[in-house]
Each structure stands twice: as structure tokens, then as C-alpha cells.
Write a sequence for this structure.
């Protein structure tokens, strides 16, 4: 189990994310990704409306302004929610190799007791881990769903960077003990 994933060099972004997460805080990059997550979908769905509204002169412009206001309101509400969210830390295990071709699949890890923990979304990049590997994981629970922020194998050469600091729980972080 000492494969390439345990000695793979961490990117600068991953290092910065872990440094913030271990102190119970979101990194700026994670926070921005969480806030703007639905924006792409909203923009794609609203393009036809904007094109149609453009044909109706001043009334169409009001519709476009209202749509932009809805985008801003959505982002402001998400910013407020994720600024107050509590980070969670838990050691979880991979239960098998994930298929690289099925990008739409949710990330599922397991607790030590075998309970499946499903993440509806992930902010971190595509995960490449060996089967039955212990991982340091940071995630948030918001709106009835779990969002994976960062995961690093416990046997990684930089694993100490992923362990929660003494500030983690003081900042409101939640540590799950299995």
C-alpha cells in the first residue's frame, strides 16, 4: 500500500487549503468555489431568458436586471452561510478504487466501523487513492448535504500537514472520533 499516491507531491493550492482547514477555516479558494458553485448552472439556464428578454425593450431590461439581482442575492446568501459553516474532520477509508470514467458519481468513503459516508460535491480535485487507505478528510455539512473540502492519505509524506491543529476546535471545528 505504499504506492505512488502516498509520496505524490502536493500542489500549492492543496497545501494552502490544508493549512487553513487544519485551523478550522475555509481557504479563500474553497470559499469562492462554494459560493459560485450554482452560478454556472444558473447562467446556462438563464441565457435563453436573457435572449428573449432583449427583444422586449425596457421591460426586457428590467427582467435582465431582476435576473442579475437574483444572482447577486444567491451568491450573498451562500457567502453568508459558508462564512459561518463549521468544518468537520474525520479519518475515513477508501472502500475500493473509484472509476475514473464515471465522473458523475458521488464520492463515497467509509468510517472505521464500515458506515458509508457520501459526499454530494467536492471542492478538491479528482481523488486518486488506493483501496482500503486511511484518509485525513475535511468537509462541511450544509443544506442537508456533505461537501468534501480536502482529503490526504494518512501515509502521505506530508500527512502531518493534514492533522487538525490545536486551534481547530476553538474555531468551531468538529472532530469525529471513530
Amino acid at each position: 500500500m505504499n504506492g505512488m499516491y502516498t509520496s505524490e507531491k502536493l500542489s500549492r493550492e492543496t497545501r494552502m487549503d490544508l493549512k487553513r482547514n487544519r485551523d478550522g477555516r475555509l481557504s479563500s479558494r474553497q470559499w469562492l468555489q462554494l459560493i459560485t458553485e450554482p452560478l454556472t448552472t444558473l447562467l446556462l439556464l438563464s441565457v435563453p431568458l436573457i435572449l428573449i428578454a432583449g427583444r422586449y425593450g425596457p421591460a426586457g431590461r428590467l427582467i435582465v436586471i431582476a435576473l442579475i439581482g437574483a444572482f447577486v442575492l444567491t451568491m450573498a446568501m451562500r457567502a453568508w452561510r459558508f462564512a459561518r459553516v463549521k468544518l468537520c474532520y474525520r479519518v475515513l477509508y477508501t472502500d475500493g478504487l473509484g472509476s475514473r470514467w464515471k465522473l458523475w458519481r458521488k464520492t463515497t468513503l467509509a468510517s472505521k466501523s464500515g458506515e458509508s459516508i457520501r459526499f454530494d460535491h467536492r471542492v478538491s480535485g479528482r481523488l486518486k487513492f488506493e483501496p482500503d487507505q486511511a484518509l485525513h478528510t475535511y468537509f462541511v455539512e450544509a443544506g442537508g448535504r456533505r461537501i468534501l473540502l480536502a482529503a490526504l492519505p494518512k501515509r502521505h509524506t506530508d500527512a502531518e500537514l493534514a492533522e487538525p491543529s490545536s486551534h481547530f476546535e476553538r474555531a468551531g471545528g468538529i472532530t469525529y472520533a471513530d
